[in-house]
Design goal:
Length: 482
């Protein structure tokens, strides 16, 4: 049974190896990592984003071993991380209930992380974050408070919303520790958090990234979240992500809910698992972005609770009906999405025609530049850097990222703040791009309302030093005057 489960999980993740990029976030991480490997400091001249450093360090280390933009290696690493999380869920399920419950939990997680649009398969922050969160939960069950807290900090190095998991502490103290031992356990947990934060701060300081980290990943949080908490934006994202996510996993949601509904009669470890799902959902929803892959954080506890529920149900007289319902409810959506993900272009699968011909643009960049040339892309299309195998001329892999560009709101975003433009100008003067690619001219990713002519740094540069040389799929490409 374990072999069959492993094969099933492997099959549904195979589409990750059919595409170079699975979403725009991978392109952002990759383009920044490639720049870091040239000696630039993260959150400085080595690339700017609003994510914590873990994902960039991971990509940079992988590229250092296998070469820049070697996304197959990154996708293989993501598969290993998924498998490791499955193994941890097996141990958790076995310790709470039985080996069968652990195997079910591991299988459900492996399938859940591939049952969705192509972006769900990406080597994203949520996937890497969930591994230490799951390990932290296992150690929490074993009352290893310090080490559990340390792993939560490691998870936070990949995404800020991992901090929501700290809310497990009061539940864990209440259900796992005797009254007299709670203060000491809480102190060990707090020590783990402080040690983790100190080590992280030291790593950032040693790499020259500490001040930039504060500027781009901490100061931007409030504005970024506020922009997402717009009723129209939330409605659109709930329809495109939350509804299909819940629908595709409805059998597992029902199973998990059946465990949560029995709260009063649950064992302490089972109560902690229910709390894990609750705080993980809080973390998934906190940012208001609500893309499908944001819910990977909740998939591990969801899979665990569903595994516990199905394991119990298989010991009842209705076990055959239960087994059939679960098998159909889990495998049919997984098979459907796997077929779709093999065929779909992850970067444009949800576009209405005309679809961006990004491969053609990337091919032009690659054939009209040398490997040591740099290019600049105006818009939110960092994928062109990875697809053309060229470095960015600036520290910014894109603009108005995460911003509801079709909303008509003023383009006041964290990556268009006043201090962005002097930094951009400095970068472009230090590394003059061989080509400037303007994706706004064909409205790629709703960037039409933001022409370069509205931004003096770019308008002056193009007018003084560049001339148009090609228009491909509506995208205008400028070359430097020589």
């Amino acid at each position: 049974m374990a072999v069959l489960a492993s094969v099933a999980v492997l099959i549904v993740h195979l589409p990750a190896f059919a595409h170079q990029l699975l979403d725009g976030d991978e392109a952002v991480y990759g383009s920044i990592a490639a720049l870091m490997n040239q000696g630039g400091a993260l959150y400085g001249d080595g690339g700017v984003d609003n994510k914590p450093p873990g994902i960039f360090w991971t990509y940079a280390a992988t590229f250092d071993l296998f070469g820049n933009y070697q996304m197959t290696a990154v996708h293989l690493l993501a598969l290993v991380v998924t498998a490791a999380t499955c193994v941890l869920l097996f141990f958790i399920g076995r310790s709470i209930s039985s080996p069968r419950a652990g195997l079910l939990a591991a299988t459900f997680y492996g399938l859940l992380t591939a049952t969705g649009n192509p972006r769900l398969l990406a080597a994203n922050t949520e996937l890497f974050m969930t591994l230490p969160l799951t390990a932290g939960f296992l150690l929490l069950l074993r009352r290893q408070w310090l080490w559990s807290a340390l792993l939560m900090v490691v998870a936070g190095a990949f995404k800020q919303v991992a901090a929501a998991e700290v809310l497990l502490l009061p539940v864990g103290l209440l259900v796992l520790e005797a009254r007299g031992a709670r203060m000491q356990a809480a102190a060990r947990f707090g020590a783990g958090i402080l040690i983790g934060l100190a080590v992280g701060a030291a790593a950032l300081a040693l790499t020259g990234s500490l001040s930039g980290f504060w500027r781009w990943t901490v100061e931007t949080l409030t504005g970024y979240a506020a922009g997402n908490w717009n009723p129209a934006v939330l409605l659109d994202r709930s329809q495109s992500s939350i509804v299909p996510f819940v629908a595709s996993a409805i059998v597992l949601w029902v199973a998990a809910g059946s465990v949560a509904a029995q709260w009063r009669s649950l064992w302490p470890a089972e109560k902690l698992a229910v709390a894990w799902l609750a705080v993980s959902l809080l973390g998934s929803l906190a940012g208001g972005h609500w893309s499908w892959h944001y819910f990977i954080q909740a998939m591990a506890p969801l899979a665990l609770l569903a595994g516990l529920a199905v394991d119990r149900a298989l010991d009842t007289p209705r076990r055959r009906w239960i087994a059939a319902a679960v098998l159909i409810g889990v495998t049919v959506p997984a098979a459907g999405w796997t077929s779709f993900n093999f065929r779909a272009d992850p970067l444009t699968y949800d576009w209405s025609p005309p679809v961006a011909q990004h491969e053609q643009v990337a091919d032009y960049i690659r054939t009209h530049t040398r490997p040591d040339d740099r290019v600049f892309v105006w818009g939110d299309w960092a994928a062109l850097y990875a697809e053309s195998d060229r470095l960015m001329s600036s520290r910014f892999p894109g603009f108005l990222r995460g911003f509801a560009r079709a909303s008509g709101l003023p383009p006041n975003n964290w990556d268009t703040a006043p201090d962005v433009w002097p930094a951009l100008q400095s970068d472009l003067e230090r590394h003059p791009p061989r080509l400037i690619v303007d994706t706004s001219t064909d409205d790629w990713s709703d960037f039409g309302p933001y022409p370069m002519s509205d931004y003096p740094v770019l308008a002056n540069l193009v007018a003084s030093s560049y001339h148009p040389v090609a228009t491909i799929d509506g995208v205008v490409i400028y070359a430097r005057n020589t």
